[in-house]
Every structure is written in C-alpha cells, then in structure tokens.
Design a protein that fits this description.
Distance between the termini of chain A: 69 Å
Shape of chain A: globular
Order of helices and strands of chain B: HHEHHHHHHHHHH
Number of strands of chain A: 6
Structural class of chain A: mainly alpha
Distance between the termini of chain B: 38 Å
Shape of chain B: globular
Number of helices of chain A: 24
Strand content of chain A: under 5%
Helix content of chain A: over 70%
Radius of gyration of chain B: 19 Å
Oligomer: heterodimer
Strand order of the largest sheet of chain A: 3-4-5
Largest interface: A-B, 78 and 83 residues
C-alpha cells in the first residue's frame, strides 16, 4: 500500500498545487514545499523493504505493477531529495515571473514521473511514467521562451526517437514472452538466443542512451540545460538525465542478467567492452569542449555529459568495483552538478540573469556562501580527495587498472584533468579576481537559496569522508545483481589489492592544515588591503575591469579547438535541415488548395484514360 | 614506529627540499663564474620572511596557501622515502595522483583572490602546463601499475628490489625515458619555467605574496620539487631500503635537472604544450603498449 501512497501524494500534490496557486501564492508555496519534503521522508521510511504489488489489472489484459527494491529505493530517495531542494531554491528564484503556478505544477509532475519510473514493476507502467516525465520536462525546458523553445524542440524530438526505440523493444518482448513484468522477464529471457538479446540491448541502449545523453546521442543536452530555469537545470542534469542510467542498470543487470550481458560477443568485440569505450569517448570529448565554453550553464551542461561517461564506463566494465563505483558516481554527480547549477542560479538571480563568464568577477566578496557552494561542488566534480567524487572515481580507476584496461583508465584520468581546467576557469571568472564597479552593492543570496546550497555541500563532504554509508547500500544493489559482495567499511573499501581509507586521509589533511596554520600564525601579522591595492609595476590599477578572463586558456584553445567540433550535432542538424527541405518539397505539391487537388485527380484520370486508350490493358 | 615515520617524513622532505633549493643556486652561480650564496640561504630567507609584514587580500587568499602546503605535506606521507611510507596503505598511487592537485590548486585559489592579472596569467599557464605533462605522466604511471599489476607504489618499489631498477629493464625503460623528458616540466624548471616567469609576468602566481605567505610558497615549492623527484626515484630507480640512500639517488637526479636548467632558455607556453603532447606522450604511449604486449 505504501508505494501507492508515495505516488498518490506526488501526483495529487502536483495538481493540488496548481489549484492552490489560483487561490493564493503563499498557500501554494507552503503546500509545494510541504509535498516535496514529505516525499523523501516517506521514501526514507521505506528503507530495506522488498515490495511488489499489482495495482491495476486490465490494461490490454496486462497487470500493472509497482515494486520497491534497494535499487529503486536508492534512486527514489535521490530523486525526491533533489526535487525538494530545488523546489526550496525555486521559491525566490521564480517569484515574480509569469506562469509560476504552471512552473510548480510541472516541477512536481517531473518529480512524480521520475518516482513512478523507479517504482514501476513492469514495462507498461514504466513507459507511462517515462512519457509523463519526458513531456513535463519539455514544458519546463521551454519555460523561458525565446531560444529555450528551440532547445526544448531539440530535446523532445530526440526524446521521441528514444521512446520509439523503447516501445519497439517492449512490443518485441511482449510478443515473444507474453509478459512485461520485470521479475518474470528476468527469468524467461535467459533462454533466448544471444542475437535476440543483442537486438534488444541495442533498442534499449538507444532509448536510455538518449535520455542519458550518451555519445552520440548527447546533442540535446547542452542547449536544454543552459536554457532551462536554473532549479530545473539542477533536476534535469542531476536526476532526470540519470533515469537513463537507472534504465541501463535495470535492463542490463536486472533483466538481461550479468551472465548474458557479459557473454555477448568475444574479446575486444564484446558488447560491454564497446559500451565501455563509448563511455570513455563520452568522458574525454565533452570535457574538453566544456573548457571552451563562456556560458556558465553551458560549461556545466557539457560536464553533465562528460560525467555520464564515468557512470557508463564503470557499470559497463562488469566488475563489482566498477558497478559500485559507477552507481555511486550517479548519486555523487547528482549532488555536485545540482549544487553547481543552483550556484549559477543564485548568481543569475542577483545579477539579473548574467551567465557570461567574461563579465563577472570578484563575487566572493559579496556572495561568500554561494562561493563555498561553488568551491565544494567544483572539488566534487574534479574528484579532489575528501569529496564524494573522489571515492567513486577511485573505485572506477582501480577496477580499470587491475582488470588491465589502461587505455580506458587513461581516458578517465585525462578527463579529470580537463575538468580541473574548466572548473578553475568557472570559479576564477565568476568569483575570484576584481569585483566590477556595477556589482559593488550586490546582496547575498536569499536564505531559501543558501539552504539547498549548504545541504548539497554538506552531502558532498560527508559522503567524501565517510563513504561507507552509501557504499553499503550500493553493495546490496550489486549483490542483488549477482555480483560478489565487497568488503565495505565505514571509511571506504578494504581489500588485498588496495585499500581506500578516507578517514586516514581526512585526519592527515586536517592535522597538516592545523600545523601549517599555527606556523603561519607565528609569523608577523598581515595587513588587509583592498583589491585596487595590488602590484601593477608602478602604474595605478584601473578601477572597473582589471580581470584576466576572456580566453582564459588562449594558447590551449588555439591548439585544441580544430579537433573539438561536435560532428554528431552537425550531422543531426544537417539531417533536420534535409527533412525540412523534403517537407517543403512535399508542401509545394500538397498545397491544401482544393482546386489543386481536383486538378491532380483530373490529371490522374486523364492518365488512366490515356493508358487505356493507347494500350488497352484493362 | 609509524608515528615516528609520520613525524619524520615531512621533516626530511622539508630539509632536503630546502637544501636542494640552496644547492641549485650554488651550482648555477658556479656555472656563471660567481661565488653564490651559502647553502643555508633558503632557510635564512624563510626566517627573514616570517618576520616581515605582508598584505592580505581576503579569507581565501590566506586559506588557499595553507591548503596548498598541507596538501604537499600529506602527499609526502603517501610517498615511500626509503622504507618510510606511513600512509601508503590508505589508497595507493591513485591518492598520490590526486593529492598532487592540492599544491597548484591551493595556490591558484589563493592567487585568484589577489585580483591581479599577472597571477591569473601565471595560473592559466600553470594549468595548461599541468595538462601538458599530465598526459605522459598518466601513461607512465599506468605503465608502472599495469606492469606490476598493482595500484600500490610500495609494491612497485618492492618489485624493483627483486628485479632490478625499472630504468634498466625492458620494457619499463621506455616510460622511464618519457619521465626524464617531462621531469623539468613537473619541477617547473627551465625550459618550462614559464609559470613564474619573473621578467614577463612578475613571477606570476606569487606576485601578491609577501612576508610569511611568500615563505610558505617557497616551502611549498621545495616540497613539490622533492615530490617530483621522489616519484621518479621510486618508480624507476628502485626506491631504497633506507632514507639515506634514497636521498643520494634523489640528489643525482636533481643535479642533472639543475644542469639542464642552467643551460636552456625558456619556452613559450604553446611550444611547451606542443612538445609535451608530442614527444613525451608518444614515448610513454609506446611504453604502455609495450608493457601491455610483454606482460602476460
């Protein structure tokens, strides 16, 4: 009963919010926050339960199921927590804009749709919730109108292609096995031929890969993320895109099963190895493209694509460490990318929508809490030790090295170094350097924005120092997929081939910091000076813009830009153009004018008569 | 025993690093036909700088440099110095790779708040240079890890004590040569001394540091020099069974680097990056391929 309760609250809350908004906006705000905060609490309460129940029979004669296991609990908690925090963030972000009732309705609906996806127990239910999520996401992406409409259109066209792939897969499953329930499919699918399984995997790879923005299906993501309202960008990049990862995990390991999945193909040409290489490409190219971006949200969006590569790489490699690393990376990515999008949102809110990295600077002096969020988020994304990103990347690197895939490991490593460059640029151009004159009187971000930023920062650091808590849960997911269990301790992973002990690292760094701080205390005191009082070789420092930001890595850009064209996107755009041309051609014939159609009919009759008269074939 | 090692390792690194800085000045002076400052000059400078007044540009400016130096200190605990390797069981080589980040990142954050374009240009160069040498370095480290099938640097050292120095055995000699090619870039010595180019960008990231902060930057520099050379000695010169021999091996490598430093002019950043992603990367890539083919 309780799974239904979650979904009823999620969906009912969404629609009630809309009607409350018509009465009073204060009531609506309170109610929205209440609904979004009840959900994670309720889901957390369901921890450790294994439920499966039929809630409706008779849709085409198929039973519709809801189920809860560790995998879905894990995703449901992440989804609802991120949903709640981004709704709290929205309170001040969206106030005063138009169509706010609609905005909250859609935010809650996306949230509810995602909860439905992870809690569904068969493919029909899954598909219904998948579409609810996809379409409400489309409406939110194009919320800002203008360029957002084009971004939304790009997203929904690709999303529909993915849905078609999924529905073909579902139909094929149904005609062959007569059931669409996950747990039953997992039993019967093992007997089918490898060729059939491969074709299914390809279909579902397209379906989930488009949502997951896996190369070469990533092209919708950068415009969609940068044009959506920032709190929704956080949801979009943090959890909605990762529904594709949930789909991968569910289909590859939950349904097809470990043995058949790893047994497809041989050696270098096996399915999972090629998938791992796709993951590796997905890490390197987008990360380097991110370095070139000057729009703060677009930069993060490209990292969203890039980090997806680590998850695909980790889960595709098919070892317990890889699976745990990849799955842990999903939740880590959620925490820091959502945090960074919220940070950008806060800056955008205070500077009236400035996202251009070349026109900001020095904001650390005016928005210190936001800067802390940005710093922690950036460290997480890079994978600096003591953040959660480090732990998951460590697991992925380790399995790649010990399984002797050094080139994949190289791709993963060099991706991290690209991340450092672009994230430092992000921090430096926005928060460091000289504060421009026009932002002198900027206020701090409001409390409803600082709260989610601080919560996410805390999550990143806590999971980085004591990663054992989430790793234990993920280990249960691994064992439910028939991976062997790993030795998880509160401070990381213990094994003979290499131990990770984050608490030792933490204690060492804190102790070193204290010692260095004490030493620095012993030195002579320093005098605080303002930003204009810096070394300029005797010249006076110009007051307004004295900040090295434009083309921050210019020498590097000149060398790598020619190699970093997004060929895939160009190909798709050409395809779209070609389709439009075809449509225009058809429209020239198919004009909608009745007179023309009459002439076509007459001409056709004349042709028939002519043929009959000439050759008399009838 | 472990606690003694934890206390001793950073002290060894500090003393040896500072001594190397003094020695470098002395050797270069002799090449220039000068007498040069005494070997203890860096220590004297540090004590002097701690007693000078400095400026502060804000909280992150003060904090970043502390973070940078403590990251380097912790890193020393993960690196085997002879038989001293107190923390290397807590994460192995992968932690070393990531802790190497703290040094430049801390200085970059600290320098960023100083609001001086010279700093930003210097940091931009440092990060590009780091990306440049990181590609071959990753190939080298991967070759070493794959060759010994471990992620622990202690295991790599132990394997060499049985099989001989990696620099003298095939195929590990190939990545070893690549490491020698990038070592000046890791240490920030000429021809790659473009981060703190004093004549062009007023010592880059260091321009706003003075007094005790300049002293800490100098100490950090000594530490990072120690780390770059110690990594090479551990990976390719067989480490050592006690810190004494280890430091002698380091000294030899260091003197070679100082001689290179003394005779080369400075590259531009484009030239440096192009060089690093061409020859060292090719050699180290070939090394990794050879290791993959030869092993198992």
């Amino acid at each position: 009963m309780s799974i239904e309760l979650v979904l009823i609250i999620a969906f009912g809350g969404a629609f009630l919010t809309y009607f409350f908004g018509k009465i009073s906006y204060k009531l609506r705000d309170v109610f929205t926050v209440l609904v979004s905060c009840v959900l994670p609490v309720l889901i957390a309460y369901l921890y450790g339960k294994d439920l499966e129940n039929t809630f409706y029979v008779g849709f085409l004669g198929l039973p519709l199921l809801l189920r809860l296991n560790t995998l879905s609990w894990f995703f449901a908690l992440t989804v609802s927590a991120v949903g709640a925090l981004s709704i709290i963030f929205s309170l001040s972000y969206i106030r005063g804009r138009e169509r706010t009732d609609f905005y909250y309705l859609m935010m809650l609906l996306v949230n509810a749709g995602m909860l439905g996806i992870v809690l569904s127990g068969d493919f029909v239910t899954f598909y219904i919730f998948w579409e609810i999520m996809s379409w409400s996401a489309f409406l939110l992406i194009s919320y800002n109108r203008g360029p957002a409409l084009a971004a939304g259109m790009k997203y929904i066209v690709m999303s529909i292609v993915g849905s078609i792939g999924m529905i073909i897969g579902i139909l094929s499953l149904y005609t062959r096995f007569g059931t669409l329930i996950f747990s039953e499919l997992a039993v019967v699918i093992a007997s089918s031929s490898p060729g059939y399984i491969l074709s299914l995997l390809l279909l579902f790879f397209v379906a989930f890969g488009i949502k997951n923005a896996v190369w070469p299906f990533h092209t919708w993501l950068p415009p969609a993320h940068s044009e959506a309202p920032s709190p929704f960008s956080a949801v979009l990049s943090g959890v909605l895109v990762r529904m594709g990862m949930y789909g991968f995990l569910l289909f590859f390991y939950g349904i097809v099963g470990l043995k058949s999945f790893l047994g497809l193909g041989r050696g270098l040409l096996s399915f999972h190895y090629i998938l791992a290489w796709i993951g590796a490409i997905n890490i390197v190219i987008p990360t380097f493209i991110a370095m070139l971006q000057n729009d703060s949200k677009r930069l993060l969006a490209w990292h969203g694509v890039g980090q997806g590569g680590y998850m695909v790489l980790g889960t595709a490699i098919g070892t317990p460490l890889g699976l745990i690393g990849g799955t842990f990376h999903i939740v880590n990515h959620t925490s820091y990318i959502a945090l960074l999008f919220l940070v950008v949102g806060a800056v955008e809110y205070r500077t009236n929508g400035v996202r251009d990295l070349n026109s900001l600077g020095g904001l650390i002096k005016r928005m210190p809490i936001t800067f802390i969020g940005a710093l922690v988020g950036a460290c997480g994304l890079i994978g600096v030790p003591l953040t959660n990103g480090f732990v998951s990347k460590w697991l992925i690197y380790k399995t790649l090295i010990l399984e002797r895939y050094p080139f994949l490991a190289f791709a993963a490593f060099i991706g991290s170094w690209g991340t450092i460059l672009s994230l430092y640029k992000f921090l430096h151009n926005m928060f460091l350097g000289q504060l421009p004159e026009k932002y002198k009187d900027l206020k701090k971000a409001p409390f409803t924005m600082q709260l989610p930023i601080l919560v996410f920062s805390l999550v990143i650091i806590v999971f980085g120092i004591i990663p054992g808590i989430p790793l234990k849960i993920i280990n249960t997911i691994g064992t439910s997929f028939r991976f062997e269990s790993l030795q998880i301790t509160i401070w990381g992973i213990a094994s003979e081939t290499g131990t990770l002990n984050t608490i030792n690292i933490f204690v060492a760094i804190v102790a070193a910091c204290i010692i260095v701080w004490l030493v620095s205390k012993a030195g002579k005191r320093s005098i605080p000076v303002n930003q204009a009082d810096s070394y300029a070789a005797g010249a006076s420092v110009p007051a307004d813009k004295y900040h090295y930001t434009v083309d921050f890595y210019n020498p590097l850009y000149r060398m790598i830009t020619p190699f970093l064209r997004d060929f895939v996107d160009e190909f798709y755009m050409k395809l779209a153009q070609w389709t439009r041309g075809l449509g225009n051609g058809v429209r020239r014939v198919y004009t909608g004018d009745v007179g023309n159609y009459v002439i076509y009919i007459l001409l056709f009759l004349a042709l028939l008569i002519f043929v009959q008269v000439k050759w008399s074939i009838w | 025993m472990k606690i003694a090692q934890i206390i001793l390792s950073p002290i060894i690194a500090f003393v040896v690093g500072m001594f190397f800085l003094g020695l470098a000045r002395k050797i270069i002076a002799r090449i220039h036909w000068r007498y040069g400052p005494p070997l203890t000059q860096p220590f004297i400078d540090i004590i002097k700088l701690f007693n000078q007044t400095s400026v502060s540009h804000g909280g992150l400016f003060n904090l970043g440099i502390i973070l940078s130096l403590s990251g380097s200190i912790v890193l020393v605990l993960f690196l085997p110095i002879g038989n001293f390797h107190p923390l290397s069981g807590s994460g192995g080589m992968l932690v070393i790779l990531y802790l190497m980040l703290f040094g430049p990142l801390g200085i970059a954050l600290s320098g960023g708040e100083a609001a001086n374009p010279n700093t930003s240009i210097g940091i931009s160069r440092k990060l590009i240079l780091a990306l440049g040498y990181e590609a071959p370095l990753l190939f080298i480290l991967l070759a070493a890890m794959i060759h010994n099938n471990t992620i622990s640097i202690v295991e790599i050292v132990r394997a060499q004590q049985e099989a001989g120095w990696a620099l003298l055995t095939f195929p590990m000699v190939v990545p070893g040569i690549a490491y020698l090619l990038i070592l000046p870039a890791i240490l920030g010595k000429r021809p790659f001394e473009l981060v703190g180019a004093a004549q062009e960008i007023s010592s880059g990231p260091m321009v706003e540091f003075g007094g005790k902060r300049l002293a800490m930057v100098n100490i950090q520099h000594a530490f990072s020099m120690f780390i770059g050379i110690a990594l090479f000695v551990n990976l390719f010169l067989g480490g050592s069974s006690n810190p004494g021999f280890f430091i002698i091996k380091m000294l030899v490598v260091f003197i070679v680097e100082v001689l290179i430093n003394a005779v080369f002019p400075r590259m531009r950043i484009e030239q440096a990056f192009r060089y690093l992603w061409r020859w060292p990367t090719l050699v180290s890539f070939a090394g990794l391929v050879l290791v993959m083919i030869m092993g198992r």
